[in-house]
Amino acid sequence: MTALQPDRAVAVVGAGTMGQGIAQVALLAGHPVLLYDAMEGRAAKAAGAILDRLERRVARDGMSAADRDAAAARLRPVETLAQLAGAGLVIEAIVEQLPVKQKLFAELEPVVGPDCLLATNTSSLSVTAIGGALRRPGRFLGLHFFNPAPVLPLVEVVRGFATEEAAAERARATLAAWGKAPVRCADTPGFVVNRVARPFYAEAFRVYEERGADPATIDAVLRESGGFAMGPFELTDLIGQDVNEAVTRSVYEAFSHDRKFTPSLAQRRLVEAGLLGRKSGRGWYRHGADAVRPEPHTAEPCQAPAAVTLSGTLPAAAAVLPELIEAAGIEIRREDGGFGQLVLPGGTPLVLAFDEAGGDSVVRFDLALDYRTCTRVALAPSVTAPAADVAAATGLFQALGKKVSVLGDVPGAVVARTVAMLADFAEDAVGRGVADEADVDTAMRLGVNYPRGPLEWGRSLGPSWVCRLLRHLEAQYPGGRYAAGQALRRRAAAERSLLQS
Questions:
Q1: Which entry of 104, 323, 345, 492 is 20 to 30 Å from 243 by CA?
Q2: 236 near 284, Cβ under 8 Å?
């Protein structure tokens, strides 16, 4: 299916931040752009803002004056829906209210030609429900851009239950021609990104609610050990606590209160208090010119042990650690068998995320994206772990050149439990036909800037290991939140069968 030809007009309905961004994308792709907003004068004002941004591109990004002038000539604010009649694609970016969107498209349908694609930029509503009242719902679909639309490449191409394959493919081809990275997905709550991303926020909030660590420390661990661009507390302050919490609650409601999607009570209290993040001056953190960012908890220097014992083989994710430990001048005494753990001088196991032996006294070390290059490692000792062995574990990782954050008694630590849940959610999305494997990982890397796609990451850890971690978490927190999904369990069974063959 061919893309929409550049000489066909693209209409954008809604001249707010997202509408302006989408209009700018279509404009720079060479299309005439019609910009409409129901509020009088808003479309003209938005067009002026777009032209101001193009002017900055000339000064900053090397856009030529001729290209700027040509784009400016193609941009036309309009005052009525009837003026959108010649458009080949209409993209709606108005308020997230189902009746308002339904009414808009019911009015648009008789205005535009029969070959015009109709699209909603909704991030949380059902595409099927929005287009359900149309006479020709086959040409209706979701095109979910990410903010800022001119910068972020990802667009979710969402097929409603009635969307025709030709319409979805034409939209995908058009976005690809615009230089975007379109991923195709089914019309399910949260689509791909907002569905799969929920544990990134939820696990951090749970650790905080249980007083396992403060926001600054959790953010630092996920950035400096997990490789994420931002931690969940600072990211939700940037997004807006009200916006992020509303998406979480919407997905939770859509999945009939499935405990895997349970919203955070602590975040709800922030919203109720009006502490919405940067836009209100305070959220998890204080913002503003005089705000002081709290420092993450970092352990004081400790003496590294002269030697540790390696019992069995460490999990694949931590397989490089013996090499790093020996390179730091610490002796490793090896024992065959065992559960794949290091043993500290006082006899306490030092394990990745959870103790498969099920002992009472343990020091957990957190998962890292890459133990060679990470700058921080978190430890989560059990309450019964001897202080001397906690200090020895701290000194061990400090000897490897890492900052160390000592958390409370947090099952699964922080990065490990977060990545395990992300992998489970991603496997579930693929297993239920929401999107294919490549599109899920692409969506999470480009849409929310994850350092690795959750499918790739989970499979590098080993599906069986991820399942075992989730079983451990489910034992600590009964109720179903951490129960591995069927798709992940099948993946783990296939892995075990392959290893036994």
A1: 104
A2: yes
Amino acid of residue 36: Y
The catalytic residue among 194, 250, 382, 405 is 194
pTM exceeding 0.90: yes
To the query of whether residue 123 is one of the catalytic residues in this protein, the response is yes
Whether residue 152 sits in one domain with residue 21: yes
CB 462 within 8 A of CB 316: yes
Give tens-digit pLDDT for 377-430: 999 999 999 999 999 999 999 999 999 999 999 999 999 999 999 999 999 999
Sheet holding 349-352, edge to edge: 331-335, 307-311, 341-343, 349-352, 363-365, 376-381, 403-406
- Same domain assignment for residues 226 and 166: no
Is 194 catalytic? The answer is yes
Q: Which of 144, 297, 356, 472 is catalytic?
A: 144
Q: Where does a domain end: 135, 159, 187?
A: 187
Which residue in 156, 224, 234, 356 is the catalytic one?
Answer: 156
Per-residue pLDDT of 88-128, as tens digits, reads: 999 999 999 999 999 999 999 999 999 999 999 998 899 99
**Which among 95, 139, 103, 100 is positioned nearest to 121, based on CA atoms?**
95
